[in-house]
Amino acid sequence: MPLQPTSLRNLHLLLRGTPRFVQNQFHTQWQIQSRSQSTASSVNPIEVSHFNALASSWWDPHGSSRLLHLMNPLRHDFIRSCHASQPTPPGSNLRFLDIGCGGGIFAESAARLPSTASVTAVDPSPEVLAVAKAHARRDPALQGKLTYLNTSIEGLPRPRGPDEQYDVLSLFEVIEHITHPADFLDACAQFVKPGGWIVMSTIARTWTSWLTTKVVAEDVVGIVPKGTHDWEKYINEEELRGYFLRERGWNSPRVMGVVYVPGLGWTRVKGSEKVGNYFFGIRKDE
Amino acid sequence: MALFVRPSALRSSLPRDLIAACTISLNSRHFSVLNRPPPNYPGHVPLTFIERAGLAVGSAVISLANPYRGDLIAALGEATATPYFIYRLRDAMLASPTGRRILRDRPRITSQTLSMTYLRSLPPNTVGRVYADWLDREGVSPDTRESVKYIDDEECAYVMQRYRECHDFFHALTGLPVMVEGEVALKAFEFANTLLPMTGLSMFAVTRLKPAERKRFFTIYGPWAIRNGLGAQEVINVYWEEQLERDVEDLRAELGIEKPVDLRDIRKRERARKKAEKEAKERSGDSLGVN
Amino acid sequence: MKIPSTSLSTRQLGGYVCSGCTRQLRRQRRSYATSTVNPDLYDVVCVGGGPAGLSLLAALRSQPATANLKIALVESQRLDATRNFQLPPTQFSNRCSSLTPSSVRFLEQVGAWQHVDQKRVQSYEEMQVWDGVTGARIEFDWPAEKRGQTIAYMNENLNLTSGLLKRIDELGGVEVLDGQKVEDIALGSETEDFDLSSWPVVSLSGGRKLAARLLVGADGANSPVRAFAGIGSRGWDYERHGVVATLQMEGPGWGGESKIAYQRFLPTGPVAMLPLPGDYSTLVWSTTPALAAHLKTLSPKDFIAMVNAAFRLSPVDLAYMHTQSDGQADELAWRSQHTNFDQHRIPQQVIGVQEGSIASFPLKLRHADTYIGERVALVGDAAHTIHPLAGQGLNQGQGDVESLANTIQYAVTHGQDIGVRMSLEPYNAERYAANNMLLGVVDKLHKLYAVESGPIVPLRSIGLRAVNALGPVKQFFMDQAAGTGVKIL
Fold first, then answer.
1. Could you give the CA distance from residue C421 to residue B170 in angstroms, rounded to a whole number?
2. In terms of CB atoms within 10 Å, which of A263, B120, B128, C401 comes out highest?
3. Is C14 at the interface with chain A, CB within 8 A?
4. Which residues on B lie below 8 Å from C459 (Cβ)?
5. pLDDT tens, residue by residue, C149-193
6. Domain spans of chain C?
7. Which pLDDT value is given to residue B25?
8. What residue stretches are annotated with the FAD-binding domain (chain C) (predicted)?
9. Residue A53: inside a domain, yes or no?
10. Closest approach of A278 to chain C, Cα-based (Å)
11. Residue in chain C nearest A66 by alpha carbon
12. How many domains does chain A have?
């Protein structure tokens, strides 16, 4: 499918990634932030308004979210591969919590799976969530299985026990929009059942993608407004792995690099997690 | 060559048949003089490609030198009719209900099948009577025709035979005499109508005509032959045996043939004029001498 | 990328349309006392019970991942006659199709081929194709190491649909609404609970209303589903009719057990004789509407003579015989003596024609602009109509169905709404270009051989002879015809 030049989100998805000049701030960042626990939202207000603007075209298969739609089946493949890696794969009646659900592309699809008991999907943008809710009404099969909440993770009531926790907590194309990812992940972790998974997708910071996004797209060609890419927020896979595995009760990290090939769609490419889009999954200790 | 443009034939089937014929010839048996295959019909002489080419060239050269070698003209006709032209003529017959009947019945025109007594007894305006009159005037008989030997396909051999036997009817219908000048004019007509190459090759005989005859050919008979040969229906599809009692003008009109100026009359008048001129010249010479 | 269906057990997959929703709708119907009947919700509503539609339903029901979809079949004819299709072994329906090994493999996979009466199916291992104008010939027989391999299977369409229906009955779970016409297709409406404004609602003559998550148009060349979706269909009429008949031959064929299909390209169109079990063959003669009408007026004796002539005599003879009101048998007897043909490279003599089996239908080329719309997918003749000269019509439909069933399975296992365009895109991408190429090739073949004169005629003969002489090229064409070769697209 041709990439529409106006499709900021597509470019965003494809081209994100920057080198980090400064020594990785991530560790220091979460160390600092974790000390100053606050109830403030993890969400950047500028990002919220950016996605409000995208709301109307969210479900247009040829609109700016096309690449997200195309990527969605891979999310399920990835989750399935996570579950298959368990010594005893889970059965049905899975509970999903989808953070930053946007228009509900993943949330709807997760709710439709017969193995799903329920999906709770949250997003801080009211416009986007209104789109998600309206769209879900188009499929009677979703009724009773899918709940949308206009909130950030901080706004959700803390689970009081494993019954209120989730089998799968998903963060698709979310972490890179978070100003303080360490705090955010700390908050998320509480919602995961023992033996449950956090799955996410994001993009690595690399010199090549820094060149294509910051220099070519923004400065040379100018098809992306300056400042769209806040590449300093992007996180590499080993940083995520490091965060979770540092005495925090997580195991079995999994990663899958994917590349968008025009004409073929999203394709799994081994090793590409180092340079571009990738999925990351990690399991909470039982 | 302008004669080649025969609109009806070209439009409908020329290249198709050409290819069909080539295919047939390509598929036909190949043999050498040492293992000549048995004949396909009585009198058939199977020829190799080289023999056929030799026959065509040899018969063409000799018959040009001697236009009265009817046997060689016949051989030339057969040698050049394949691979394409005789098939085209056969298909022209197959496309016409009458042509098909002729192919089915395979009638022969000989003094046995056509009684001259009967023909002479017909009214003067009938096809049969005109034919008989023409034979009598020219002093020829329908039995002087060579039989076909060198065409491999027996049905096509019959088509060639039929063409040859109908030739005198064409003479009778057009009134053209058997002398070289008349033959050339009729061959031109036949070429435009049947596309048989021998009839076209016969045009070389024009070079052998006297200047006055040649002038007549180019001004009168040549243009007539082309116009009528192209415009008329395929004359091979006339079932002559069934037309004998028909009014000859009627048949000409149906076929689209106009009778050309009588060649013998022209020649007679021409001779008379020349004679008169000569006599006048002699007279004037005499008078001069007298003076 | 596909997840093997084995990773999901049937039990694990609940109904796609939840039973609660249906209950909800019923309650709603009671609460709103309006005259309009609320539609019943289905995951798949298939309009059209022909080979394509039935194969799709059999495929969906036989795959574990899609077995729990709520499915309805709408067919305007009663299906009992098809279900109970039975004829004595000396009679055959005149509508037969060639099934490629790849179609048969698919039908075996969905468990339908086992229900097709194999005694009425005839495979063939060789094809003889030649140019009626020039005689140039191509002989499709396998090289020694593949000898005996099937090129295609001839089968009555009714034998196939009957087998498919038996398989669907065996699997159960398809609501069959036969003998019911589609009276209207319109988009649903928005209610308090749901927004069905993107769901097609099919109103049946029996009064039922079915709302479809995915509406499948398997409803033939004049597809009402396609019209509803606003999908255009382009193409042209060939000004040709296909004359079909069931023929009795003088024997089982020159190959004995190993059967041969014959096709001769005449200037009016190709004439094909395809083997059926025993001494029978089926005829497909594409010709001008006038000549087709003429053929249908002939006595059985003269019709048989015309069919024998079509494989033997020259186009000149055929053209003449088409002008005769009778007497073709006599004409054939005479012309056969003067026409050269190798009788072992043409079909055996036809000696009988089954009463009432001579029929004709117009030939068209049509191609829908797309096979998919929002909550709409087209398969088979609703998507494309092809010239029958390559025997690919039914096989293209089977190819569509296999692709669509896989697409639906992928969508179900990945939580996609199977009706939305996004989910259906792979189906369109996989089939459109491939079908378009085949339609184009077959169309060009028809046009190539409809030419009677001009430089094309010798060139096509050279081409045919060259292909015949080149083993690998011929092998490629045979593999394509058998559907076993490398996919060109």
1. 77
2. C401
3. yes
4. none
5. 888 999 999 999 999 999 999 999 999 999 999 999 999 998 888
6. 5-87+159-235+365-442, 96-156+237-362+445-482
7. 41
8. 42-433
9. no
10. 16
11. C422
12. 1
Task: Return the amino acid letter for C140.
Answer: F
Q: Please report, for the domain that includes residue A271, its CATH number.
A: 3.40.50.150
Q: Say how many residues make up chain C.
A: 489
Q: Which among A51, A176, A177 is positioned nearest to A103, based on CA atoms?
A: A51
Could you tell me the pTM of the whole model? Answer: 0.81
| A1, part of any domain | no
In this structure, whether the domain defined by C5-87+159-235+365-442 belongs to CATH 3.90.1140.10 is answered with: no
| Neighboring chain A residues of C41 at a CB cutoff of 8 Å | 140
| C194/A61 touch (CB, cutoff 8 Å), yes or no | no
Architecture of the domain whose range is C96-156+237-362+445-482:
2-Layer Sandwich (3.30)
Mutate to test the interface with C, among B14, B23, B87 (most CBs of C within 10 A): B23
A143 CB neighbours in chain C (<8 A) are: 18, 20-21, 24, 193-194
How much is the mean pLDDT over chain A? 79
Residue A145 in contact with residue A72, Cβ under 8 Å? Answer: no
Spatial CB neighbours of A19, under 8 Å, sequence gap ≥ 6: A205, A206, A207, A210, A231
What number is the average pLDDT over the span C305-320?
94
**For residues A98 and A102, what is the distance between their CA atoms, to the nearest angstrom?**
9
CA-nearest residue of chain B to C132?
B20
Mark yes or no for CB contact C415/A109 under 8 Å: yes
Sort C311 into a burial class: Cβ within 10 Å, 0-12 / 13-18 / 19+. Answer: buried
Angle at CA of residue B91, ends B86 and B95, nearest 5°: 150
| pLDDT-derived band at C362, boundaries 50, 70, 90 | very high
Q: State the Cα–Cα distance between residues C89 and C140, nearest whole angstrom.
A: 29
Mutate to test the interface with A, among C17, C422, C427 (most CBs of A within 10 A): C422
Q: How far apart are CA C284 and CA C262, in angstroms?
A: 10
Site from C265, C313, C316, C340 to mutate, B interface, most B CB atoms within 10 angstroms:
C316
Q: Is residue A174 part of a domain?
A: yes
Give the structural domain span for A164. 8-39+62-284
Q: Say which residue, A77 or A22, is predicted with more confidence.
A: A77
- Cβ distance C458 to B19 less than 8 Å, yes or no, reads yes
What's the confidence (pLDDT) of residue A68? 84
